[in-house]
UniProtKB/TrEMBL annotation:
Family stated for the protein in its record: Belongs to the prokaryotic/mitochondrial release factor family.
Domain Prokaryotic-type class I peptide chain release factors: 17-140
EC number: 3.1.1.29
Compositionally biased intervals (Basic and acidic residues): 132-146
This protein's UniProt keywords: Hydrolase
This protein's name: Alternative ribosome rescue aminoacyl-tRNA hydrolase ArfB
GO molecular function: peptidyl-tRNA hydrolase activity
Pfam families: RF-1
Biased segments, Basic residues type: 114-131
InterPro entries, A to Z: Pep_chain_release_fac_I (IPR000352), Pep_chain_release_fac_I_sf (IPR045853)
Amino acid sequence: MDGLRVTPGPGAPRGLTVPAGDLVERFSRSSGPGGQHVNTADSRVQLSIDLGTTTALDEVQREQALRTLAPRLSGTVLTVSVEENRSQRRNRATARQRLGELLRDAVAPPVARRATRPTRGSQRRRVRHERRRAEIKRNRRRPDHD
């Protein structure tokens, strides 16, 4: 198995190279239809990388990736599972592509939100909606005994 080459992006201007020793590939049988082939071929691919120990990331990239990918991690291990194709080779290529995209996007610095003011039209619509809602609730009240 070769290492993984990640294309350049905002957090990694020269790209990343993940050594083959940092990647763990596991194969298993896919679910779903496929006839007799599905019962004999291990075409599902699970590709994992431990972000806490990989040599592909520097400390700034590691912290950013761990923070960004926290919901997807098991400890510090990121796993991508692919079973779209009947071919193990295609699934391996897809898993490597997805893992590369995830890493490239994860090391990118967060984009700060540019603060904007609500438009005059949106403010008018909000006030109009609030008044309409207040009128509906006012009409639900019990009538006065005058």
